[in-house]
Design a protein that fits this description.
The complex is a heterodimer.
Chain A (H helix, E strand, L loop, with lengths): L2 H32 L6 H15 L5 H22 L9 H23 L17 E3 L2 E3 L1 H23 L1 H11 L1 H6 L4 H27 L6 H15 L4 H21 L5 H15 L17
Antiparallel strand pairs in A: 1-2
Helix pairs in contact in A: 1-5, 1-8, 1-9, 1-10, 2-3, 2-4, 2-8, 2-9, 3-8, 5-6, 5-8, 6-8, 9-10, 9-11, 10-11
Chain B lengths: L2 H23 L5 H24 L7 H17 L9 H8 L3 E5 L5 E5 L1 H23 L4 H21 L15 E4 L2 E3 L6 H23 L2 H11 L1 H6 L4 H27 L9 H14 L4 H16 L7 H15 L14 H4 L6
Antiparallel strand pairs in B: 1-2, 3-4
Helix pairs in contact in B: 1-7, 2-7, 2-10, 2-11, 2-12, 3-5, 3-6, 3-10, 5-10, 11-12, 11-13
The chains are: A mainly alpha, B mainly alpha.
Chain lengths: 296, 355
């Protein structure tokens, strides 16, 4: 394997990995405020991409993407208001099963709206033919878009959680919901907001990868599995570690594909997931004792 | 003795016979084909109910165990050993009567392992895989357990879809009927409809008797104590880990048996049996039946699978199961049929303290 090939593999691995990281951050945001893994997280990406594809036939691409994100944010909020808020004291198992049900309903609704056709957004700049040469490797400009957008999402979220009142209130809820409520934080609204935020970043990530990976109604579940693997790898609830873990999984996957059959690509992340669950459920970067602490 | 415990068994036997008579009178015996299939699916549900309701462990990978049973049986009974018939192991199996010779549709003669042997191998394989998977996974809780079992199901799905030996996306077809005894065989063709209806129900009711006895035994009480408070059970000397592991293996065996028998009945198995949606569907049915309600799970397992197989839900098949899951979890987490406690006459109630 020469340098150009290695660069090629690395960049596509990092691009895939950064999307997994966004999915993982989506998991983390909801987990931190509710203590629940939202199994419908993968569906947000597909809803976002599909909506943008449909809207793009009437309005220009940037507006279509913005509208798609808004639609998905509303969907996320609606899901919280309609389902999660109804069962405030439910057990974790009950909530998991509810989100699984939601993911099925959303997926089936997409099947009936957009059928089984594989669709995709147009490339943001250039076309599928255009490439940029980096260290001898040929890279599609869309890969740079994916990297750029994911970096911006991570940076924006960090700023949001550090410096805005709402972001700090959400962190307070994650630390201790009762204490946050006593300090006047509307904790129910924070849960709704966390679903909207997760849906929003999911939709944006879904739009930006749509030109590369294409979009089909049932692609949410594999993405969710990978996102969850990444979230666990980084330590559930820890978003910065999720970014590192996402890149790691992306690279691992790409180099495995270069050695083995493509058919087993999906299996890589599942094997990683099972291994990490068995041997280090607190994640690669966290010490087991601190895994109970949640930070965005 | 324990009359109350076996009343549902007697009722179930009566219901099965009455249903047969009713269908014969209505001249609608063709429904029995789907009822037989539903019964095998219900076997998976009953096993999962034992795991979810009594051991308190969710599994999103039971379609994987169903597939292990089905695919192992199918692969062993369809692989042609004719080329190896003179090698020592195959000749040895033949002398023991473990092989089956037959001719396919085009007259080619096929020598394969007998369904009995295949069934035994499938069960051992399922138990072994359940043990290997269960050893680490059973220690996990909540999301971790859910995702780990989901991951297990997905791996089985990937293997089935990618491996040549399992027919990739086409699955395995031309699986021979399972001759149990002379004149009694698991076979999906119309002349065998009635006997298969009774074979399936015999298996299911035997499974119900087994599980009913299990949950009323020492192990069953241990399981229920785990479900209520694992720490408390542990402190009282219950080996919670071993109890949960055994239940996991038993429930995997139920699923594998259902898979193996249904594969012989249908004559084929395909990757659509192994999807995550199938696993979720089993969970949904257990939830509707009421988590810790074996008879509820059985009833719902037969009813919902029957409706689904008849195509009542049309293109909304998966959506219906998703909606059921949400609705049950939101409004009736104890299931639809919380069996009302009947007041027993005093002479029957005398030994109730055991039940």
């Amino acid at each position: 394997m020469n340098l150009a090939q290695i660069v090629q593999y690395c960049l596509s691995g990092i691009a895939a990995g950064s999307v997994y990281a966004i999915v993982a951050i989506g998991f983390n945001i909801i987990y931190n405020t509710t203590g629940v893994i939202n199994f419908a997280q993968g569906e947000f990406l597909i809803v976002g991409a599909m909506t943008a594809i449909s809207l793009n036939q009437i309005v220009p691409l940037p507006i279509a993407i913005v509208l798609a994100v808004v639609v998905t944010v509303l969907l996320g909020g609606l899901i919280e208001l309609a389902f999660i808020r109804r069962v405030p004291n439910a057990s974790v198992m009950r909530l998991i099963v509810i989100t699984i049900g939601i993911s099925i309903i959303v997926r089936e609704a997409m099947l009936h709206i957009w059928d089984e056709t594989v669709r995709s957004l147009p490339y943001f700049t250039g076309s599928e033919m255009s490439t940029i040469s980096i260290l001898g490797a040929q890279i599609s400009p869309q890969v740079l878009w994916v990297l750029g957008v994911c970096a911006v999402i991570v940076a924006a979220l960090t700023l949001f959680f550090r410096f805005t009142l709402t972001g700090r209130a959400m962190r307070a809820c994650a630390d201790d919901r009762m204490a946050a409520r006593l300090c006047g934080v509307n904790d129910r609204w924070m849960v709704t907001l966390s679903f909207m935020l997760s849906a929003g970043i999911g939709a944006l990530a879904g739009c930006v990868i749509s030109p590369v990976t294409q979009t089909q109604y049932d692609m949410g579940a594999p993405l969710a599995i990978k996102g969850f693997t990444v979230a666990i790898l980084g330590g559930l609830g820890n978003s910065m570690a999720a970014v590192a873990a996402g890149l790691l999984l992306g690279l691992l996957e790409v180099f495995m594909v270069s050695q083995f059959q493509v058919a087993y690509k999906e299996a890589v992340s599942i094997v990683v997931l099972l291994l990490i669950l068995v041997f280090r459920p607190s994640g690669l970067f966290a010490r087991p004792e601190t895994s109970a602490l949640r930070a965005f | 003795m324990h009359l109350q415990r076996y009343l549902p068994v007697i009722a179930a036997v009566l219901a099965v016979v009455v249903l047969h008579l009713a269908l014969s009178v209505a001249d609608a015996t063709y429904y029995m084909t789907q009822i037989t299939m539903s019964a095998y699916y219900a076997l998976v549900v009953v096993g999962l109910c034992l795991l979810m309701g009594y051991a308190g462990q969710v599994s999103l990978g039971h379609a994987g165990f169903f597939a292990i049973g089905g695919y192992a049986s199918a692969a062993l009974t369809t692989s042609n050993l004719l080329a190896y018939q003179h090698t020592r192991p195959i000749a040895f199996c033949r002398s023991l009567g473990l092989l089956l010779e037959r001719q396919d549709l085009y007259g080619t003669s096929i020598l394969s392992f007998s369904p009995w042997l295949a069934f035994a191998v499938a069960m051992i394989l399922a138990a072994f895989i359940a043990l290997i998977i269960g050893l680490p996974v059973i220690r996990l809780k909540g999301h971790y357990l859910a995702m780990a079992t989901l991951g297990f199901g997905l791996i089985i799905y990937r293997i089935v879809l990618a491996a040549d030996g399992f027919g990739k996306a086409d699955g395995i077809i031309n699986v021979p009927p399972f001759r149990l005894f002379d004149g009694l065989q698991v076979n999906g063709r119309a002349p065998f409809r009635v006997q298969n209806y009774y074979i399936a129900w015999t298996v299911v009711i035997a499974a119900m008797v087994l599980t009913t006895n299990l949950i009323h035994s020492r192990i069953g009480r241990a399981l229920r104590s785990i479900h209520q408070s694992e720490e408390a059970a542990h402190s009282l000397g219950v080996n919670t880990y071993r109890c949960k592991l055994c239940t996991f293996i038993l429930s995997a065996l139920f699923a594998a048996a259902g898979g193996a028998l249904l594969t012989h009945y249908n004559g084929s198995i395909g990757p659509s049996e192994v999807t995550v949606m199938k696993s979720v569907r089993y969970v949904a049915i257990v939830a509707v039946g009421g988590m810790a309600n074996l008879w509820g799970a059985l009833l719902m397992g037969v009813l919902l699978n029957f409706l689904s197989l008849r195509g009542v839900f049309g293109t909304y098949d998966d959506a219906v199961f998703g909606a059921i899951l949400i609705a049950i979890m939101l409004f009736a987490p104890d299931g639809l049929l919380r069996m009302p406690r009947l007041a027993w006459p005093p002479f029957l109630a005398s030994r109730r303290s055991h039940g």
